[in-house]
Specification:
heterodimer, A: 630 residues, mainly alpha, two-stranded antiparallel sheet, 27 helices, 4 strands, 2% strand, B: 265 residues, alpha/beta, Rossmann fold, 6-stranded mixed beta sheet, 4-stranded antiparallel beta sheet, globular, binds adenosine-5'-diphosphate, binds magnesium ion, ABC transporter ATP-binding protein (chain B), L-phenylalanine transmembrane transporter activity (chain B)
């Protein structure tokens, strides 16, 4: 009895920090329409700042709470900086670029925290005066947890007052509901945006800080909380603060009781809860149906045209060069180009979803890693021959995509993106935690190709054949009736439905196809490295794919290949530095700010008029007139 | 005229709408509306802005779900079916604010319908480029858009988009065609041409057409029968002659400060 009650209370206590962070995310998104992917990093920073401030000023009972508030303020300042330097320039850019930029911030924060606080997990300081325990029906319960339980509702009430009783808060609400109207009222919009961003950041910081005595601070907090926040926002209902509170409580309770009932299955429970709620109430617990169909805009409206003659020659030359590579370059470079080929297929599969389907997935690595693990598991446990395992990798990934996609296509736009990320994080956690099967963090080793394909040169040629074949297949599908149907759903939901297209089914099929192609890339990957680790399914890997698409430009079908090459080069250059994440993050932010069309996009913008490499990427009307297939 | 109208009403109607209602929050957008669309009839639905005309259309094609009421297509209930399902049963429509695929060419927009109708949209290996092009061009010729077949829809003028939408709606040879302000954004001569086409479709193919229109010259000149909606409720029904002299209709329009032949917004 006591155990359950304490577990219940402990769940409520955890809910507070989660609610604070999620409500901040929700407020920022409501006003600025930016999904702040760095929100988990702000939460982590709150914990680290809190740790430092408590040591500096947190001696007494009052000092402790002052230190937590200072931590929130400090994170607010970081938020101010991020908004002022980066996001402010990107509000009018396609959402993808905002998201990539905030991902750059994640990397920067990760290394900055590593540099300042070191790699060790920090044990949270205890709250002076609240270190004791109380016994509830004989079961001990930390007093601090009881205090935490009060913090969530307290902040909820404060936010309610802010949004209903103050002029600024009412403006924020108005902006959330109707942005044009607020603009028309003559409100200083950029001030409003900055204010909302800072408030949201502070809430994340406070959330990270108040959980210090319970959970401490470590460098892995950012992605864990990010996925949980997304689940809270999706389950609670978009833009509903009360919904976020309810969802945070629900999920935290599920976690704490899950540990009692099924210790290794808490994530699966979360998955099931999310699934059930989304099936019963697609708009979340307290969400209203999306009005006006807010869609993720990836900045692709141009007509994609089949390759013109120039472009075909260009591709032919590139292929010839790649085929001849074993005769020209050393093995070291062949390995590198093999990596590029694998990643190019991975990125092309994501690009297909994004550009043809308008479906921005933030969890595409689930299928890349899924394919790699499918092959590795088959080899490890079923002694499957290399050839068959490589063939089954896309099948496994496709099945995973079928399950995940079945839920995700119920949502659209950024909510779709959030859900893909949350599911990918669940998939990663399963692989990470289920060490009996997957060896957890130690990975699966000794996954090598058959003897005939094990030479570097032969494997390179095999990778070239499969990757090029996969990319051509994707291209073919883009211009097949299936691709056109998918593009129709992207262009206009209304019209697509009115001419008999089953939108969800078309999108799900595309999701599965893209997942299978990513899985094929994953299969190629695992046999080229001989091993696979959970990293291949992680959120950073998903972002790698987005980054490659971005580097290559979202408009062009050849972009992902350029992007994969640029990414591999960048990665190899940077990885030698200790703080390579910091450099990568800065590079990403700089690239987004300087070349909002991506590298290939920018190059084409300048060269395209003369070279006409790929029709349909420079001018709009003109291209469609001229770009008729040969 | 009155005789043919009664004669048609006696046949099995194409669409039979009964007690259709829809509220948005506190606004009763459509209130207990009943009418029939006879086979081979050109029926105009008129009423001031905000009367509930578009909402009616949206319920007929399944895009929004009616709160109550029934819509039968040749006896078969449509309420509760998806837009895609209703389209397959032969109800095509155009939108007040045009909905086309801006990244595709005009011809491809029409070809999409043909692919959808033939259930080809899950085909992975055939090419969609120039698929069903001849048929698409023929449809575009019908609405006078063949010359612009290879322009992307994203760059067309509003009036041209309306015509593309009509070609798209005709693509699967529907039994019933719903046109929401089909001539908005067109020059007077284009309007008359387009409505002339609609009238031919009705007489030659036996298509049943329900349309909304603000231009009263068009309505009185082309509609076989007219129904009038005001604040969600049906207030009159009859021939042009009858509607023109209906005191309630006059009051509605004059009361709203709108005179026949109002300019397009
Ligand atoms: N999606 C919606 N949400 C809320 N109110 C709506 C919606 N669609 C229409 N309305 C309201 O319903 C009424 C009828 O609108 P509508 O059917 O568009 O009229 P009409 O087409 O005759 O001009 C109007 O008051 C309008 O504001
Ligand atoms: Mg209307």
């Amino acid at each position: 009895m006591g155990v359950y009650l304490v577990q219940f209370l402990s769940g409520l206590a955890s809910a507070s920090a989660l609610f604070l962070a999620a409500s901040g995310l929700s407020i920022i998104f409501g006003v600025t329409r930016v999904v702040n992917f760095a929100h988990g990093s702000f939460y982590m920073l709150g914990a680290f700042f809190g740790y430092t401030f408590v040591r500096e000023v947190g001696g007494g009972a009052i000092g402790f709470w002052v230190a937590l508030l200072l931590a929130a303020l400090a994170v607010g300042l970081v938020g101010l900086l991020v908004e002022f330097v980066i996001l402010r320039r990107l509000y009018k850019a396609p959402e993808l670029f905002q998201l990539i930029a905030t991902f750059g911030v994640i990397l920067i924060v990760q290394d900055a925290a590593l540099w300042v606080w070191g790699p060790e997990d920090l044990l949270g300081p205890r709250a002076p005066g609240l270190t004791g325990i109380v016994r509830i029906f004989g079961t001990p319960m930390p007093v601090y947890d009881l205090v935490l339980i009060g913090v969530g509702p307290l902040v909820l009430a404060a936010l309610w007052l802010l949004f209903n009783r103050t002029r600024w808060g009412i403006l924020v609400r108005a902006a959330t509901e109707d942005r044009e109207m607020v603009g028309a009222l003559g409100v200083n919009q950029s001030l409003l945006f900055t204010g909302a961003f800072v408030l949201g950041s502070m809430l994340a910081g406070l959330g990270g800080a108040i959980q210090l005595p319970k959970g401490g601070a470590d460098l892995l907090m950012d992605f864990g909380i990010l996925a949980e926040m997304f689940v809270v926002v999706v389950v609670g209902g978009m833009g509903s603060i009360f919904g976020a509170f309810l969802a945070a409580v629900l999920i935290s309770l599920l976690n704490t009781f899950g540990i009692l009932i099924w210790p290794s299955g808490t994530l699966v429970l979360m998955f099931i809860l999310m699934a059930v709620i989304l099936v019963v109430r697609p708009t979340g617990l307290l969400g209203r149906p999306e009005s006006g169909g807010h869609k993720t805009e990836v900045g692709v409206e141009q007509a994609l045209r089949p390759a013109g003659p120039h472009y075909k020659i260009f591709i032919g030359l590139l292929l010839a060069l790649l085929l001849a590579a074993p005769l020209i370059v050393e093995e070291f470079y062949l390995v590198l180009i093999t990596d590029v080929l694998v990643l190019a297929l991975f990125a092309t599969s994501l690009h297909f979803l994004m550009s043809t389907g308008g479906l921005v997935s933030f969890g595409h690595a689930a299928f890349y890693g899924g394919g790699a693990y499918a092959a590795a598991l088959l080899v490890t446990y079923a002694a499957t021959p290399f050839e068959l395992a490589l063939l089954l990798a896309p099948l496994g990934a496709g099945l995973l995509a079928l399950v995940i996609g079945w839920f995700c296509v119920r949502l659209s736009g950024v909510y779709f993106a959030m859900l893909t990320l949350a599911f990918a994080q669940v998939a990663w956690s399963v692989v990470f935690q289920w060490s009996d099967l997957t060896n957890g963090d130690d990975g699966l080793l000794g996954i090598w190709p058959s003897a005939w394909a094990s030479g570097t040169q032969v494997y390179y040629l095999l990778a070239l054949a499969i990757s090029a074949g996969g990319i051509f297949l994707i291209r073919r599908v883009v211009f097949a009736p299936f691709g056109y149907g998918l593009r129709a759903t992207r262009d206009s939901n209304l019209r697509a439905a009115a001419i008999g297209i089953d939108i969800k089914r078309q999108q799900l099929a595309a999701f599965v196809f893209a997942g299978a192609m990513a899985g094929l890339a994953g299969g190629l990957f695992v046999f080229s490295k001989g091993s696979v680790f959970p990293d291949e399914m992680s959120i950073p890997r998903s972002f790698d794919a987005l980054l490659m698409v971005l580097l290559g430009g979202v408009d062009s079908l050849s972009g992902p290949f350029v992007g994969a090459a640029a990414f591999t080069y960048l990665h190899d250059e940077l990885i030698t530095f200790e703080y390579w994440r910091l450099l990568l993050g800065l590079t990403i932010v700089a690239l987004v700010l300087l070349f909002p069309q991506g590298l290939a996009g920018a190059a084409k913008h300048h060269l395209g008029r003369y070279l006409k490499l790929e029709a349909g990427s420079a001018g709009r009307a003109k291209q469609a007139d001229e770009g008729r297939p040969a | 005229m009155s005789d043919t109208a009664t004669a048609r009403a006696a046949e099995q109607p194409s669409l039979s709408i009964r007690n259709l209602s829809k509220a948005f929050g506190g606004v009763q957008a459509v209130n207990d509306v009943s009418f029939d669309l006879a086979k081979g009839e050109l029926l105009a639905l008129i009423g001031p802005n905000g009367a509930g005309k578009s909402t009616c259309f949206n319920m007929l094609n399944g895009q929004i779900r009616a709160d109550s009421g029934s819509v039968r297509l040749a006896g078969e209930e449509l309420i509760g079916r998806s837009p895609a399902d209703i389209w397959r049963r032969g109800v095509g429509r155009t939108f007040q604010i045009t909905a086309t695929f801006p990244s595709m060419t005009v011809a491809e927009n029409v070809a999409m319908v043909l692919m959808s109708q033939r259930r080809e949209l899950f085909s992975l290996f055939r090419t969609a480029v120039h698929r069903h092009r001849d048929k698409a061009l023929a449809l575009l010729d019908l609405v006078g858009m063949a010359a612009q077949a290879d322009r992307p829809c994203g760059v067309l003028s509003y009036g041209d988009l309306k015509r593309v939408e009509l070609a798209v709606a005709l693509g699967n040879e529907p039994r019933v065609l719903l046109m929401d302000e089909p001539t908005a954004g067109m020059a007077p001569r284009e309007r008359i041409e387009l409505m002339g086409l609609a009238a031919r479709l009705v007489s030659d193919l036996g298509l049943s057409v329900l349309f909304t229109e603000h231009d009263m010259d068009i309505v009185f000149g082309h509609a076989g029968r007219i129904i009038v909606l005001s604040r969600g409720a049906l207030i009159a029904e009859g021939t042009a002659q009858e509607i023109r002299s209906n005191p309630l209709v006059l009051k509605t329009y004059l009361g709203e400060g709108q005179i026949y032949g109002r300019a397009e917004g």
